[in-house]
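[worker-b] picked up task from shared queue
[worker-b] task type: protein-ligand structure
[worker-b] ligand name resolved to magnesium ion; SMILES cross-checked against name lookup, match
[worker-b] sequence length check passed
[worker-b] input payload:
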Amino acid sequence: MPDIILDVQGLETVFKTPEGLVHAVNGVSFELKEGETLGVVGESGCGKSVTMLSVLGLIPTPPGRIVAGKARFNGRDLLKMSGEEIRHVRGAQISMVFQDPMTSLNPVLTIGRQLQEPLMMHIGMTRKQAQERAAELLEMVGIPNAKDRLSDYPHQYSGGMRQRVMIAMALSCSPQILIADEPTTALDVTIQAQIVDLVKRLRDELGMAIIWITHDLGVVAGLAQRVIVMYGGYIIEEAAVGELYTDPQHPYTIGLLGSLPRVDERKQSKLYSIEGLPPVLYQKPQSCPFAPRCKWVMERCWNENPPLETISPDHRVACWVDTKTGRSRS
Amino acid sequence: MTTYIIRRLLMVPVLLFGVTVLIFGMLQFLTPIQRSALYIRSEPKTDKAVEGVIRQYGLDKPLYVQYWNWLVGVVDNNGERKGGILFGDFGYSRVASQPVADLIRTRFPNTLDLTLWAVAPVILVGIWLGVQAAVHQNGIIDQAARVFSIVGTSFPTFVFGLLVLMIFYANLQWFPPGRLSDWANRVVLSDEFTRYTSLLTFDALLNGRFDIFLDALRHMFLPILTLSYINWATFLRVTRSSMLETLRMEYVTTARAKGLPERDVIFKHARPNAMIPVITLAGFQVVGLLGGVVITETVFTYPGIGQAAATAAAQLDVVTVLGFALFNGFILIVANLAVDVLYAFVDPRVRLS
Ligand SMILES: Nc1ncnc2c1ncn2[C@@H]1O[C@H](COP(=O)(O)OP(=O)(O)OP(=O)(O)O)[C@@H](O)[C@H]1O
Ligand SMILES: [Mg+2]
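[worker-b] inference finished, payload out:
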């Protein structure tokens, strides 16, 4: 059985805003095994990005603050590391790719320069070595004439190519974990598929573990081994990918899957058929945060927030209701 | 880059044409005989002479003829060219009893000297302070900068100028007005002092006369302060807010996620982007400073172009004032060109478009 390389326990992150304290992440726990791909899904604002940024110490402080939790990585707690220590983890052992490739590269620095930075920083390459390696990396992610394109600036690359650059940069120091935060959301559908294929290929070649954040349960099905579903800053369901698709337990997951566009339907017309919007939590809820939108809601859901419970070896869910029977789970 | 600069350069003649048409239009408010100052020194006294002058310099001709004459000058009976702004002849200043161009030549270096000393510290220190205020938001520098911004921008120049004049000149006698002390002036006017650049502080350094350099700076200190304190305030504010905005950009998070030290994140990734709006401001400020010299130089009796303009305006010497306006227009165009080139230098999206 492969080792656990990242073990997050009870992570809580809040933001101080003029409207009040926002509880963005509320006691999130998950594990990541070596070489595994973990999907993280959920609607906008449910705390996916904040969870990952917290783990890497990238939450803007203020307004953000991590109030509780551990994140063990190679036996050390990332949340307890000094700024200098975690800096040597970022980009070297855990790296991150962001959603919008149009804004995630620096517009005034050349692609080459931006690729060289982590190489010189973490591996101690000279500028010349880094330059050669940068060209190889660009080639690796499928950019033609890689050598000549190092001196280009981001605006001379298309969106898809920029995301390839981001991936090349993230993988440049052979990290153990790649966190991809909705890396395809901002791209055209055809380009999305190319990026997913690229990441699959690189995973097979390099063997890193991946945390793939997305809105799109369809993409995750073909990529991940295990999936976490988040809602209101909580993990509400977690299961092996096959089990989640064949036997979803949480009403929210069922809703998400129900709104998955069919392969034969070209349009991604309405992504979610669940009524209403996810909440912004100014207080830790005393009820199930999904209750206001839930079809199966019962008395108990309004009074107690269900904990995440193991229902089978590969499956955890946080819900009072057994959606098969519509009655209380016991 | 080259095509970009060529495109900007091609704009220059268009702008110059615009400026000259504007100034020429204003000259039309003068009577024909008042406009004769564009060509000759003294206004003719007898009616007959007046008529002769008007005819000779075409001051009653259609506007396009007059405009052309104004540009290239008119050849008089002795075969000499009179006037012609294209040849650097801006007419005759009857108040100063010398050609307007000569007046500009003697006065402008003083003003430029003053402006450079007012601008350089603002830009260098202002950027540094603005970046610090943004990086340590709500820290000491940020708080002080905020207070200073409010006080600075709500204080009119002439009040501030008179105030420092009263305190540092009249009461404390630390800084004198004027341009130089008598002893220094004697040295500067003597043969052993070479005027390489016409800018006094630079010439003093080039001549190796540090004492004169300091004397000049001492005289300029209060005008510099008066001229630039408002710019400090605005420069700080704009740099700070631009930097704060840049620090929220996703590529800054990318830089941090790469494991770069915070120093590199701020100075290599964020600051160059934050400078883009600051450059525009710097361009505006240099131009604005040249306008601001009128009040400052008058308050401190500093012999620059602003003081000369104020004197000419007070005596209704319109030809001189408009000559200065024309010159100011040129400077403005050059400053704009410099800003455009600087833009291309920092922003590849502009350079390579
Ligand atoms: N800088 C911030 N200041 C205040 N609140 C924040 C900040 N960043 C995130 N939040 C809050 O944290 C919550 C979770 O946001 P997060 O970005 O993690 O959502 P997400 O699941 O990644 O959504 P998306 O799919 O849109 O990326 C949101 O309610 C958001 O309002
Ligand atoms: Mg997100």
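[worker-b] attaching auto-annotations
[worker-b] The domain at 98-352 of chain B is CATH 1.10.3720.10 (MetI-like fold).
[worker-b] releasing lock
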